[in-house]
Amino acid sequence: MMNNCHQQLSDRELLDLIKEDDKKAFEEIYSRYWDFLMQLAMKLLQSKQKAEDMAQEIFISFYNRRHKFELTVSLRAYFSQALKFKVMNEFRSQVVRDTYSRHIRYVYTYAVNTSCHAYETKELAYHISRSINLLPEKCRQAFLLSRSEDLSYKDISGQLNISVSTVEKHISKALKFLKTNACLQ
Q1: Read out DSSP for 1-55?
Q2: What integer pLDDT is reported at residue 26 of this predicted model?
Q3: Are residues 29 and 18 in contact, defined by beta-carbon separation less than 8 angstroms?
Q4: Contact at 8 Å (CB) between 25 and 14?
Q5: Cys staple from 73: which of 56, 77, 120, 155, with CB 3.0 to 4.6 Å?
Q6: Is 57 helix (H, G, I), strand (E, B) or coil?
Q7: What is the pTM of this model?
Q8: What is the C-alpha separation between 183 and 145, in angstroms, rounded?
């Protein structure tokens, strides 16, 4: 019977009662605007769960502010505006979360790739060094003088007392050996 009485009251009258902690008045406002808020939320969010959560949050906020609440527009307009602000905040928050998530994935991928790349580089350097040490003495010396010291074939031939063509053969042999041997290990 009392609830039926609340159904006859205007939103403004119900709001005055809500300010006096009349729970039945709040229940009436809730029942009047729940479906409206849900339909609007569903249209904006395309998710029933998110729409219910958001509508519930709006009613909780409304109830918590009931003593200070001043109605300057209709309750329909108030709930509609409150929902639009909540949806915009949700979208902004989602953009921040997505951006952060992409950043974390990028940093993680970069770190993994960098550490993998560093590991692979270290491994390759180890295998190349091991393979160079397997070269015959003169061949290894000619190769190291060419690659490490950046000497010309003529300078290497003078330093090792061998002909330029022999230096060419040693370096060619070393490169062939390294291509097959360092990659296979």
Answers
A1: -HHHHHHTS-HHHHHHHHHTT-HHHHHHHHHHHHHHHHHHHHHHHS-HHHHHHHH
A2: 95
A3: yes
A4: yes
A5: 77
A6: helix
A7: 0.53
A8: 22
Confidence class of residue 107 from pLDDT cuts 50, 70 and 90?
low
In whole angstroms, what is the distance from residue 182 CA to residue 124 CA?
A: 7
33-57 pLDDT per residue, tens: 999 999 999 999 888 999 999 999 9
Query: Residue 155: in which H helix or E strand, if any?
Result: helix 153-160
Tell me the one-letter amino acid at 149.
E
| Cα 79 versus chain centre, distance | 33
- Residue 150's pLDDT band, with cuts at 50, 70 and 90, is confident
Instruction: Write out the two tokens for 38.
Output: 């849900």
Per-residue b/e over 41-78, b at no fewer than 16 CB within 10 Å?
A: bbebbeeeeebbebbeebbeebeeebeeeeeeeebeeb
